[in-house]
Specification:
alpha/beta, 38% helix, UXS-like
């Protein structure tokens, strides 16, 4: 038992003593300490015994204390001693084939809503979406509202969620710099506490959980293209760190729950994604350029313009996520399009396809903006049989049509 836990027991010693009857003091103390340990510290209880780390100066109640995790956790080395809870008995029913119950956090957002569309195509899936609508919208899910296999919950993942599910796609987190910088502490909470809550849920119900991590875990990479084995080059105290480091911690939590509790995990490191339903003014480069072109505004390219990105169409991204969830590989696995474009090249392409009359304008860059970003998708090809199908020049017109509809801008003849 650590000194921290010991000190907490000291604080509560008086309250424990007051509840222990003079009759059968030892038995009642055992019962109280056991319930206290389980309720407050989630510690296993090994009986009313003297723990070697409890000083002899403590009262009888505390000296004869719980034997906790000394056998396995003294040095922070945790090994799963038992498999995770099994899924619902309905999964193994001989006479009734239950639907697969799937939770999608952040399911009202850009990628999440497209994922929901794909999952709902399978009549054996029941989909629950949890979203707080910070960046998502009910409008993205309007065709499913009222469907008997669909449920929508307004919920913030930083609070516990009690549902019974078989799979969890954990997408909840603002991904655009404009939104994740708006409240950086909330962004960190979403990544850390939100992921802890979803892992706790997965542990309780025996669900498989997939985390959508990000290429931002590579920071401003010194290796190009970026394989999953690359540890990254991240500024831990920059203005983007709430997102970058938040996702890195989320990955750590996923693997610690996997190693310690046997939870079935999947981690996808998703690269820049574009397509219909992106927030029009979310600050990401593709949506910025298309919105500016439709409004006859100059395309603002952050200097020097030679920085590169790789853009994956949203349907390809969703296909990759589902393949990862249904496969047997833990990950992390890069999901993205290895086609690499400079920002100047992207601006020229948008100008050519959407509005040839507009100009391109250079503006000051933002701090910690990565100079290059390109996924190595060798593992995705080998392990998932996945690679993107839609090229940038084919995907941009599909996104343009969606933006025109939402902005009310007709196409010029």
């Amino acid at each position: 038992m650590t000194n921290t836990v010991v000190s907490k027991f000291q604080v509560h010693e008086t309250s424990l003593n007051s509840q222990v009857s003079t009759i059968d003091r030892k038995a009642q103390t055992t019962k109280l300490l056991k319930s206290y340990a389980i309720a407050n510290y989630k510690l296993p209880f090994h009986g009313y015994q003297l723990h070697p780390r409890i000083p002899l100066g403590f009262s009888l109640n505390l000296r004869f204390c719980l034997l906790t995790m000394a056998s396995s956790a003294s040095n922070g080395e945790h090994k799963s001693t038992k498999p995770p809870p099994t899924p619902s008995p309905l999964r193994n029913s001989k006479f009734f084939q239950s639907n697969m119950r799937i939770l999608v956090t952040g399911g009202a957002g850009f990628i999440g809503s497209h994922l929901v569309d794909k999952l709902m195509e399978n009549e054996k899936n029941e989909v629950i979406v949890a979203d707080n609508y910070f960046t998502g919208s009910k409008d993205n899910l309007r065709k499913w509202i009222g469907h008997p296999r669909f449920e929508l919950i307004r919920h913030d993942v930083t609070e516990a969620l009690l549902v019974e599910v078989d799979q969890i796609y954990h997408l909840a987190c603002p991904a655009s710099p404009i939104f994740y910088k708006y409240n950086p502490v909330k962004t960190i909470k979403t990544n850390v506490i939100g992921t802890l809550n979803m892992l706790g849920l997965a542990k309780r119900v025996g669900a498989r959980i997939l985390l959508t991590s990000t290429s931002e875990v590579y920071g401003d990479p010194l290796v190009h293209p970026q394989p999953e084995s690359y540890w990254g080059n991240v500024n831990p105290i920059g203005v983007r760190s709430c997102y970058d480091e938040g996702k890195r911690v989320a990955e750590t939590l996923m693997f610690d729950y996997h190693r310690q509790h046997g939870i079935e995990i999947r981690i996808a490191r998703i690269f820049n994604t574009y397509g219909p339903r992106m927030n029009i003014d979310d600050g990401r480069v593709v949506s910025n350029f298309i919105a500016q072109a439709l409004r006859d505004e100059p395309l603002t390219v952050q200097s020097p313009g030679t920085q590169t990105r790789s853009f994956c169409y949203v349907s390809d991204m969703v296909d990759g996520l589902i393949r990862l969830m249904e496969g047997e590989n833990t990950g992390p696995i890069n999901i993205g399009n290895p086609g690499e474009f400079t920002m100047i090249e992207l601006a020229e392409t948008v100008k050519e396809l959407i509005n040839p009359s507009i100009e391109i304008k250079m503006v000051e860059n933002t701090p910690d903006d990565p100079r290059q970003r390109k996924p190595d998708i060798t593992n995705a090809k080998k392990l998932l049989g996945w690679e993107p199908k839609i090229k940038l020049r084919d995907g941009l017109p599909l996104m343009e049509a969606d933006f025109r509809l939402r902005l009310g801008v007709a196409k010029k003849v």
